[in-house]
Specification:
nine-stranded mixed beta sheet, alpha/beta, single chain, 307 residues, 13 strands
């Protein structure tokens, strides 16, 4: 039931501020932390903490951040044998501002992530035969994402695409390679060309994405929960009521919970519930990987919700 994550590994430079700055404003913050992150790495840690064997494929730089990022992944139980340390460049960095309401602004500097290419796909291919799920995101070049999806499809592996950061257009050839796509409201709006603000528009957006070839579309709606559409059904999972501390990596937490459940052949309803619950738990703590729950925390949380 192994999950393979093909994607980005970043060091997050996180500042805490009373509120997010407006353009041109200099704002004084009150806390700074250096925290391992990157959408790919976050999702890998989320899966591993839920007790599912996980492998990370991608690149870090030859700098100190690269060393620290690999060590952090390994400590979380993520296999890093296929994670290249590229001595010719620096590691990816995310500069993050988080306000007192838990909202955030994020700036990504790709570094080694921007150099992921066919050579990395070739490192991925040998382990697909042992994989159940491949998780993809868009913090690495699209050509590499598409090639990885093709390789996974050929190997009979379930492909989950988190289309983040948001992009206006994805290659048309990518959609039929994707089993499950998981955009949030902003990402879904950019993909389909109309505003996705509620379950009604999310249902329409999911239909559009499925018409492009995706098997299952899951639209993450924040406080409104998540909407899922398959060939057989459309259903919604309400958001879990929690006290929000920091929304960084909430989307990654959702994908990790979803992938961990699908890797164990759980139903799509249970998988979306796992995703929503892991995301809810993640926003109750600060940071990216530091906020991700383990299996016992998830099970306790679900039990408290009578699920």
């Amino acid at each position: 039931m192994m999950v393979v994550v093909f994607g980005s590994v970043n060091m997050d430079l996180v500042t805490r501020v009373p509120r997010l700055p407006v353009p041109g404003e200099t704002l004084t913050g009150y806390q700074f932390d250096t925290i391992p992150g990157g959408k790919g790495a976050n999702q890998a840690v989320a899966v591993a903490r839920l007790g599912v064997p996980t492998q990370m494929v991608g690149r870090v730089g030859g700098d100190r951040f690269g060393q620290d990022l690999i060590a952090s992944l390994e400590t979380a139980g993520v296999g890093c044998d296929r994670l290249l340390r590229d001595q010719s460049t620096t590691s990816g960095v995310a500069v993050i501002a988080v306000d007192d309401a838990g909202e955030n602004h994020i700036i990504i500097i790709p570094g080694a992530n921007g150099r992921v290419d066919q050579a990395d796909v070739e490192r991925l291919q040998p382990i697909l035969s042992a994989a159940k799920v491949l998780l993809l995101q868009l913090e690495i070049p699209l050509d590499a994402v598409t090639a990885a999806a093709k390789a996974a499809k050929a190997a009979g592996v379930t492909v989950i695409l988190d289309p983040a950061p948001a992009q206006d257009n994805l290659p048309t050839e990518l959609y039929p390679l994707v089993d499950v796509i998981t955009p949030n409201q902003v990402e879904a709006s950019q993909l389909v060309g109309f505003a996705v603000e509620d379950t009604e528009n999310a249902t329409k957006a999911a239909s559009v994405l499925r018409q492009r070839g995706v098997q299952t579309a899951i639209i993450k709606l924040g406080k409104q929960g998540a909407l899922c559409q398959t060939a057989a059904e459309t259903f919604s999972i309400p958001a879990f009521p929690v006290e929000v501390v920091d929304t960084v990596a909430a989307g990654d937490a959702f994908n990790g919970g979803l992938a961990a459940a699908l890797a164990q052949d759980f139903s799509i309803q249970k998988a979306v519930t796992w995703g929503a619950a892991v995301a809810a738990l993640s926003v109750t703590k600060a940071g990216a990987q530091t906020s991700l729950p383990n299996l016992q925390e998830l099970e306790n949380f679900l039990a408290s919700m009578n699920l």
